[in-house]
Amino acid sequence: MTLTGNMLIGQQAITGSREAIRAINPATGTALEPAYLGGTGEHVEQACALAWEAFDSYRETPLAARATFLETIADEIEAIGDELIDRAVSESGLPRPRILGERGRTCHQLRTFARTVRAGEWLDVRVDTALPERQPLPRSDLRQRQVPLGPVAVFGASNFPLAFSVAGGDTASALAAGCPVIVKAHSAHPGTSELVGHAIARAVKKSGLHAGVFSLLFGSGREVGIALVTDPRIKAVGFTGSRSGGIALCKAAAARPEPIPVYAEMSSINPVLLFPAALQARGESLAQGFVASLTQGAGQFCTNPGLVIARQGPALDQFISAAADLVQRSQAQTMLTPGIFQAYEAGVGSLLELTSAQEVAAGVRGNTPNQCQTHLFVTQARDFLADAALQAEIFGAASLVVQCADDHEIRQVLEHLEGQLTITLQLDDADLESARALLPVLERKAGRLLVNGWPTGVEVCDAMVHGGPFPATSDTRTTSVGTAAILRFLRPVCYQDFPDSLLPTALKHTNPLQLRRLLDGQREVLENA
Ligand code: NAP
């Protein structure tokens, strides 16, 4: 397909009129064609009007048809072939194998949501049948199901140009829930966004759905983004990006006459806790695993291990020395955008200026544009506790080791942490009791706790939680990865004493969708299940 530089409002290609956005190949610093003229409030108005028009028919699509639609999007993305891979590589600077893997993950995600939609468990059907003879008062027939919130605004993320962008997890879960989606494309990868946007638009058409089920807008966050979030027809927002961007959207959504939820995934330093027996027994291999996780993708993962916590002593010294050796030998890698590179350099620069943190190693310096040089720092627990700046996210391959005097100080450091997406526990059998004692504080701090692994790499599955207390996310009750992400875009409705003919199909007395309902307090066991 020839890239056009146009937005998509439903099936219509529309040219913007604001300042041109051009992708920059971060590996070379060169601007890529075509230019994408930014949208205006008028374009937001058109896309929202169309999405609202589409909502009532889309929300009633039979589960099988909606599932097939999601699978068709995946098929259409795969059918783009190398053009999508080549464009995503040149717009992101990410290596080809990583982009190939990301396309696989994106399509797997869409197909997983298709399976979820078909199964219908997310409708969470609850039935309390009428008790006309109950004393002192009879009970009505009460039936509950989940319904979609309405049109959703999605902000594509820079660090996953496919899996967290136009057809990423936010879009897939909102469409699965029955919500039309309007994507505000990330300005770092407009060509990739256009290609994927057209794939979704083709799937909309092939599936015979209303054109307003999907639109794609380009433009600045402050104009197009805020106009979207404040449009009365938008009922929820999905976002992955910076803390300041996420907070700005939360504030705009809360200030509306009708406030709406913003599911923003923002900032996490993903602490790794090294327990004494594990550190003693396998410090060298822990250092290898840690540096591999730290440097993967130039550290541009929301789950990058930006903090290590351990008790000071010879075993920790050996770990730091082995990690420093590996960091020194780590090659520079291209970062996603000049802006992200500059933010990384500024974050590392701030740490270098502090007397409370010492640099123990820096990786190989790059000699091409926007190269991330790995950095490893150490600090003492008392300094970490005294200075909030030491737990600010540095997006990239930089990490800080916090040396603690004893278990009490480890607990103090954990209590002092902001909310996190993940906390990793490296432990051996002899560490189990210490780990158990810390579990209550760890559960309060993070959405995912993992043992003897590394936080980078997030499985798309039913049990995944990619969320956590603020500032990891703006809503600690949710996940943006995995099938539970659908729950963000639903709300319950109760139907009291409805005649069967008026009930939605999912709630009818004969249970025609064969859903496992909660019937009079008991989970139904279905004969064919
Ligand atoms: P970003 O600056 O937050 O931008 C993400 C999206 O939000 C863009 O579409 C942007 O629009 C919009 N936006 C940003 N600020 C806004 C505001 N005040 N009002 C309305 N819309 C706004 O994130 P980024 O460009 O991807 O990367 C910048 C930094 O974000 C990184 O250095 C890193 O610190 C952090 N980040 C974190 C994660 C994570 O997973 N935790 C992932 C990616 C990035 P524009 O097109 O106008 O920029």
From TrEMBL:
<keyword id="KW-0560">Oxidoreductase</keyword>
<protein>
    <recommendedName>
        <fullName>2,5-dioxovalerate dehydrogenase</fullName>
        <ecNumber>1.2.1.26</ecNumber>
    </recommendedName>
</protein>
<comment type="similarity">
    <text>Belongs to the aldehyde dehydrogenase family.</text>
</comment>
<dbReference type="GO" id="GO:0047533">
    <property type="term" value="F:2,5-dioxovalerate dehydrogenase (NADP+) activity"/>
</dbReference>
<dbReference type="InterPro" id="IPR015590">
    <property type="entry name" value="Aldehyde_DH_dom"/>
</dbReference>
<dbReference type="InterPro" id="IPR044151">
    <property type="entry name" value="ALDH_KGSADH"/>
</dbReference>
<dbReference type="Pfam" id="PF00171">
    <property type="entry name" value="Aldedh"/>
</dbReference>
<dbReference type="InterPro" id="IPR016162">
    <property type="entry name" value="Ald_DH_N"/>
</dbReference>
<feature type="domain" description="Aldehyde dehydrogenase">
    <location>
        <begin position="18"/>
        <end position="426"/>
    </location>
</feature>
<dbReference type="InterPro" id="IPR016163">
    <property type="entry name" value="Ald_DH_C"/>
</dbReference>
<dbReference type="InterPro" id="IPR016161">
    <property type="entry name" value="Ald_DH/histidinol_DH"/>
</dbReference>
<dbReference type="InterPro" id="IPR050740">
    <property type="entry name" value="Aldehyde_DH_Superfamily"/>
</dbReference>
